[in-house]
Every structure is written in C-alpha cells, then in structure tokens.
Amino acid sequence: MELPDGRLPESFGKQAFPEPKPFEIGSPAKPVVPPQMPAPPAEPSKMPVTPPAKPRPTSPKPGPSRTPRTPRSAQTPPKPSSPKPSLPKSTTNKKPPVVLAALLAAIAAIVCCAVSCDQSDDNAAGDRPAARVTTAASPAAEVPVPVAPVLESSSGPGKCPAIGFLGADELGPDALDARRAVKLAVDRHNVSNVTGCQVRLVEADTGHGAPSQLADALARFGDDVVGVVGPLRSAEVGPAGVWFDARGLPFITPSAGDPAVAALGLGMFHRLYPTDLDVADAAAVLLSAKLSAGKVFVVRHDGALDMRIADRLLHNTAVTVVATAQVQAGLKDYAAVVGQILPSGAESVYFTGSTAEAADLVKALRAAGFGGPVVGGEPLLDLEFSRLAGYAAVNTFAVCGCGEWGDRIYGEEFRKAYQQPPGRHAGAAFDAALLLLGAVGDRPRSRADVRQTLAYGPFVLTRGTFDFTDTGDLDRKYVEVNVYRPNVSQSAPEMLPMTTIRLSTA
Q1: What is the rounded end-to-end Cα distance, in angstroms, of the chain?
Q2: Are the beta carbons of 199 and 163 closer than 8 angstroms?
Q3: How far apart are CA 198 and CA 184, in angstroms?
C-alpha cells in the first residue's frame, strides 16, 4: 500500500486441521466430539457405578487427500490424548442370596428417606434443590458435578481470545477502510456466535511509522490476542514480524506488497495480497495479450518500488522495454520525456509516479499525439486522476493487487454501518479477519491453534480461494490482479473494473 503521492512510507508445529476439505469461512468448524461411551449395565449384586466423564474432543488427523506443508516453527504440538476406556464389566455372574438382597433394599430405603428429608430442609431454608448435588454415600464412586465452561473476553487459560488490527491512519481512506472491515468482521462473528466466544478487537495505529510508534502499537497486543491483521506498510513487516515471532503470534498483512519481506524467514508472517512483482507481471500480460502493445517505455522515479517494477518489466519476456526515463518527484513539465517517448517506437507507456504526475504525463502525451495505452499502479485509482486528466485519461489503465469486495451482503452491511461503500483495500482486510475468526470458531483457542489452522489450506474466502506458501506468501496459483479504467464519460469521475488477470493462467 502506498501513500497518496505514490511513494512507500518508510510455521510451525501443526496439529491436524479438523476438516478434510477446504476451510470455508462463514461456517466455522465445530469441534469434532467422539461418541460417548455407554455406561456398563448395573449388576444386581453391585451398587450403580457412575460412568467416567466424557473425554475431551480431539481433532482427527487430516484425510489422505490433504498434504500439510512443512511447518515454519520448531514448536511441536502436543499429541492428542486418547479417550479413557470405559470401565470393565463385572467378572461375576452369580446372583446374591435372597437375604443379602433384602438387606440391601432396606439400606437403600433408609438412604432415600434421609435424602428426602435433607431436600425438604433445603426447601424450607430457601435453597434451590437443582443447584445442589446430593449423593448417597457409596464406597464404589462419587457422582461428578458437571461444570459449564466459562467464556469470557479476557486473557488467561480458557478465556475467549481477541484478534488485533495493526493499522496506519496516515495512509488515509485505505487504512480507514481496512480498519472498518476488520471491525465489521468481528461484529458479524459475535452476532452469529452469541452462545460461544465473543471475540474482542484490539486496534493499534503505527502513526508515521517511527520505531517508537511501532513499538507502542505492538505493546497493545496482550496474551489474549491470538492473531493480527496487519501491518499495512511493507516497511513495518520486518520489525513487527520479529516481535510477532518472539511471541508466536501469527499475523496476516492485507496490503504490504514488497516481495522481499517473504525472504526474511519470519515464521508468523502471512500475506493475503499480491506482491509488487505480481502486479508488474500482470501489467506485462495486460499490455501484450490484451492491449497488443508489448513495446513499452517505462517512466519511473528512483525509489525502490519504482526500480523494482521497472526491472521486473525489463526481464519479462511478454513485453519489450524499449527505453526507460527517470524523472524527479513532483515534476510537472513532461515535454522532455514525451520527446524521448515519441521517436522510441514504443506502443505503450508504464508510469510509476503519483496521481497528479500521471495526470500531467497523459495530458502531455495526448497533446503530442501519442494515443497508445498508458498503464500505472495504484495511484491511478485515485479519483483525482480522472478529474485532473479529463478526457486525456482515455486508454489509461490501473493495475492493483487490491480488488472489489466479493460478498454482496458484506458490502451492504459496510454501507449501512459507515454510510459509504467499502474501498478496494477493505476486501483483503475483511478476508484476513474472517480467516483468523474462522480459526477461532466458537470456542477458546490459542495462538498455536491459529498457526496450525493457517498451515492447512486452501481457504475459501469472500474474494475467492487462497493459500499460503511455506514462507507465508500468497500462493501464486491463487494470485489475481485487477485492472481498472477511468470512466470519463460522466461528470463524476470514477474507476471501473475492467478485467482480472490470474497469473496461474497467464
């Protein structure tokens, strides 16, 4: 995710996933409860024996069609305990003498009378008989008192977990949309799960990205936080990832596109977003296969993102980069650059600058008679681009790893809650939150449980099917990059989705 001016502000031991099918958000998996072992029949010669308590449910091993990835964490999950065997049946079949049976019957009558009298005294004193458990004295066994689990929204063993959101308000509407989407996902989960865990959302803002601000934001995530959506900036993934790794806290970034962060060896890192290189590859496919304009002139700044994209296009066999021009940030007069483009034989232009710079460039190109496609990144999605460029924006396109929300009901809920439709970065944040909430389900879960769930994909989310690689990056076969074009035929400027490029079939 970039700033409005176009620059970048600067697993684990796994337990078997409980279902042998893709993890589909919207209907979180229920715990698999083994059938209760029947109690042995009472023998006439013995007092009734209470059956043992039900064993805790354990997750079955994944089916043969599921092959888990190699874990990125050295932690080894505890082996599920085997259910306790039922009590053996009595080894005697002899019937007791008649005298002994009569004696036992008399003792039972005396005990029942004593219990009845005790309950009558309780009722007279105002106690609730149902809240008290009274058992007859027996040397064989005691009747266990069932205790319902306490589900609370606080830290500690057996408590309901929380998820975190690590945002950056400096990024403006995109960050606000992401924050709102995560909150909406948590609210939806709690409403549909009124009898189970009520998940708490812990929000933190990294401000301008200073180390002290990042440290303060991370300190907000206590022991009850089992997963985090964020950070939004690529520059914050590395330092935040070290902090998350030290605490075994998994995190999913919905917008950081720097491909280098996946090579940092972060065990808790997951990315639900295409990288900058994926976007450059999609631009090459757009220019060569869909626009038939494979001879490209690249105009860029000297920033890391700009140089990374230019180098990727240079080495992409789908297009031919005829020349590259480096320009200073804030440039307004592009006459000299256009003078290099026209005689180069270029059929198209790729530009990595800001919104206002892109508008100035396309106006200069059209004024000089260049009518070929102009392709850019996320800055061209800003509605200010269409307003500034006007009809010069015809035949320009924006490629972005962001995308439209994939859930119509979610879009309606977002609009009702915030009086506006969700932005193009809200969908990835919403899906990241759903993925963490689906791992929590309707019962208390730990960070280790969430990590183990994220190791088993693919996951069916609102925007499609996704999975993570061994490094936590988005599996390339599920990567989709969206292409937008400006709508200049109306008085209100807007960007319209044109097509989606799936890199696995490109």
Answers
A1: 24
A2: yes
A3: 14
Alpha-carbon span 468 to 12, nearest angstrom: 13
Evaluate whether 75 touches 455 at the Cβ level (below 8 Å). Answer: no
Amino acid, single-letter form, for residue 296: V
Alpha-carbon span 267 to 244, nearest angstrom:
9
The model's pTM is 0.70
89: left (phi over 0), alpha (psi -120 to 50) or beta: beta
What is the Cα–Cα distance from 156 to 131, expressed in whole angstroms?
Answer: 27
CA distance 76 to 79: 9
Which tokens in the block code for residue 343?
A: 């005689």
- CA 211 → CA 239, 240, 242, 339, distances in Å? 8, 10, 13, 44
Q: What is the CATH number of domain 163-273+405-474?
A: 3.40.50.2300
Distance CA 291, CA 98 (A): 99
The pLDDT tens digits for 325-336 are 999 999 999 999
Q: Where are the domains of the chain?
A: 99-131, 163-273+405-474, 277-400+483-505
Using CA of residue 249, residue 250, residue 253, residue 254, what is the dihedral sign? negative
3-state secondary structure at position 330: coil
Q: pLDDT for 7-63, tens place per residue?
A: 433 332 333 333 333 334 333 333 334 444 444 444 444 444 444 444 444 333 333
Q: Given the structure tokens 């962001």, which residue do they identify? A: 402
SS3 444: coil
Lowest mean pLDDT across 192-201, 348-357, 358-367: 192-201
For residue 490, with 0-12 CB atoms within 10 Å meaning exposed, 13-18 middle and 19 or more buried, which class applies? exposed
Rounded Cα gap, residues 455 and 439, in angstroms:
11
Evaluate whether 477 touches 491 at the Cβ level (below 8 Å): no
pLDDT-based confidence at residue 410 (cuts at 50, 70, 90) = confident
Same fold, 163-273+405-474 and 277-400+483-505: yes
**Cα–Cα dist 368/360, whole Å:** 12
DSSP string, 139-165: SS-------PPP--SSSSTTPPPEEEE
Q: By the 8 A CB rule, do 8 and 304 touch? A: yes
Output the CATH code of domain 277-400+483-505.
Answer: 3.40.50.2300
The length of the chain is: 506
pLDDT in tens, 436-470: 999 988 777 899 999 999 998 899 999 889 999 99
Is it the case that residue 146 has pLDDT exceeding 90? no
Q: Any bridge partners for residue 402, and if so which?
A: none
Distance (Å, rounded) from C-alpha 414 to C-alpha 52? 49
